[in-house]
Design goal:
mainly beta; Chitinase A, domain 3; six-stranded antiparallel β-sheet; 2 helices; 35% strand; Peptidyl-prolyl cis-trans isomerase; EC 5.2.1.8; PPIase_FKBP_dom; rotamase
């Protein structure tokens, strides 16, 4: 298993589109639409560099249906393989929408570092 990631403070302008970067390429089963994922992740606000959530803080990975996640995860995690670590930089329109819509992360560009530990297929 990979160790807790360090998310470097980003530089440059806010991205307008989803950025997907493989930090470690996995060699296991692939995440596809309809998958349920077992992941460890850390989430950081692009502008402040502050961590807003991390499964690492709870000491265990989380199991989530890919379909139930924000668009940036649904698009950005597809094709990832078990054993991989991927960084997603997600603009607001693919995260929690524009500022003022009620979610505490609305209007924010988010960075996630995701470790894919397991995949199960749901039909």
């Amino acid at each position: 298993m990979l160790e807790r990631p360090e998310v470097d403070f980003p530089e440059g302008p806010l991205p307008q589109e989803l950025e997907v970067t493989d930090l470690v390429v996995g060699d296991g089963d692939e995440a596809v639409p309809g998958s349920t994922l077992l992941v460890h992740y850390a989430g950081v606000d692009f502008e402040s560099g502050e961590e807003f959530d991390a499964s690492w803080n709870r000491g265990k990975p989380v199991e989530v249906p890919l379909r139930g996640l924000i668009e940036g995860w649904q698009v950005g995690v597809q094709g990832m393989r078990i054993g991989g670590r991927r960084k997603l930089v997600i603009p607001p329109h693919q995260a929690y929408g524009p500022a003022g819509n009620g979610h505490r992360l609305a209007g924010r560009t988010l960075i996630f570092v995701i470790d894919l530990l397991a995949v199960s297929q749901q039909e």
